[in-house]
Design goal:
By secondary structure, this protein is of the alpha/beta class. About 40% of the residues lie in helices and about 15% in strands. The protein has 18 helices and 14 strands. The strands form 4 sheets. It has a 5-stranded mixed sheet, with helices on both faces. A 5-stranded mixed sheet has the order 7-6-8-5-9, sandwiched between helices. A hairpin with a 5-residue loop joins strand 11 and strand 12. The longest helix is centred in the middle third of the chain and has 20 residues.
């Protein structure tokens, strides 16, 4: 497969990467594909670096290894990275989002016992309030994407997750088995673990993350801000390699199926090739661009990779909404510090990746609310479950 990468010589000069080996963590989920395939295809070496990949077992472990500098960068949850930036549940450290690695591709899964409520919010709300059933839901990290999407989905159904549900943290690879064992009533996680629960007969998909927020940010390529400051050329080369891998993944079904075969290995996701092929190559989107199960896409002509300011700001609004932040942060100012748009633009130009005109985008979420990042406080004030004082 390395021949597919089209290796080229690195032009030595002032933009040469400061270090040759980049230690990058990834999680065993389908959307680790750009990280893994950039290495497998030799796209890292094409840009003058060598990725040393590390398979992590939990998001907490990923966070801790980034903070201890055992890892230079990682495939991280957007919400987790912003949680560290704000010092939520951990020592505050300045962080950097180098790029977005994917969009969509997550899910909310309920147990088979709740199948009748999966697509009926009225029935689910009645179960919680009229029948006084305290449901247990799992996510993968307290400030992470899966937690915020789960809370948003429950709140849209009229259920307050912080007051009326028990919420626990479970590593993604343990979700399907825990659901089957009856330890929870539902979970929010990245694929292939929701699909695994469905195929095993333990669960039913209640919503895809694409339904909650169409084309939402997935995982980010994250690092300590200090690493990005000290190693801008290394970061630029790393982003460039990942951009080429993302473009390769979106180019054809054949490429996605080949990636699924690689990811099936115990050293990567350790799931069946058939399951991963469905996750990665489940359907084709408009214009012939491949979108996997639950709308998973990796490039979309750069739209899926740009580190939009408004994407980072949204997670801050949700941290505030659910009381994880006790006061309103300077939303835009924080995002401007975290999102390394300048480095991304340089890498995009290096790889011929199209760039948007602005740094913000508009989205319409499942409850019809419009998020564009222009007025975060007013956006927050419109929710039925007000943020904690």
């Amino acid at each position: 497969m390395a021949a597919l990468a089209g290796k080229g010589a690195w032009a030595l000069g002032s933009d040469r990467p400061e270090i040759e080996t980049v230690r990058i963590g990834f999680m065993p989920v389908a959307d680790c594909a750009p990280v893994v395939m950039a290495s497998v295809l030799g796209l890292d070496e094409k840009h003058g670096v060598k990725f040393a990949l590390s398979r992590e077992q939990s998001w907490t472990g990923m966070r801790d290894r980034l903070l201890s500098e055992e890892l230079h960068a990682g495939q991280v949850l957007y919400g987790m990275l912003y949680g560290v930036q704000m010092g939520i549940g951990t020592q505050r450290r300045d962080m950097a989002v180098l790029m977005n690695l994917n969009q969509n591709g997550q899910n909310i899964t309920l147990s088979r016992a709740l199948a009748s409520c999966a697509h009926d919010p009225v029935a689910l709300r009645r179960l919680v309030y009229a029948e006084r059933r305290r449901l247990t839901f799992a996510h993968t990290f307290p400030t992470g994407n899966h937690a915020m999407f789960l809370y948003y989905w429950l709140a849209a159904a009229g259920i307050d997750p912080s007051a009326d549900c028990q919420v626990v943290t479970v590593p993604p690879g343990q979700m399907a088995n825990s659901l089957a064992a009856g330890h929870m009533d539902g979970f929010s996680a990245g694929e292939p673990w929701g699909l695994r629960a469905q195929r095993d007969g333990a669960g039913i998909q209640a919503a895809s993350s694409e339904q909650v927020w169409p084309n939402h940010p997935g995982k980010a390529l994250g690092a300590l801000a200090s690493f990005a400051d000290r190693h801008p050329n290394t970061c630029r080369a790393t982003i460039a390699a990942m951009l080429e891998a993302a473009r390769w993944l979106d180019a054809s079904r054949t490429n996605r199926e080949a990636a699924a075969e690689v990811l099936a290995s115990p050293g990567y996701v350790n799931a069946s090739r058939e399951l991963l092929q469905y996750c990665l190559a489940g359907r084709q989107g408009a214009g012939g661009k491949w979108r996997g199960h639950n709308g998973l896409r990796f490039h979309a002509d750069g739209e899926a990779n740009f580190p939009w300011l408004s994407d980072g700001m949204w997670f801050l609004t949700q941290h505030r909404r659910w009381g994880l932040l006790r006061t309103d942060p300077a939303y835009r100012a924080v995002a401007l510090e975290v999102q390394r748009i300048g480095l991304y633009r340089e890498a995009a130009e290096l790889t011929g990746t199209p760039l948007p005109e602005g740094n913000m985008r508009k989205s319409v979420l499942m409850d019809g609310r419009v998020w564009d990042g222009l007025d975060p406080t007013t956006y927050l004030d419109g929710f039925a479950h007000p943020h904690a004082a």
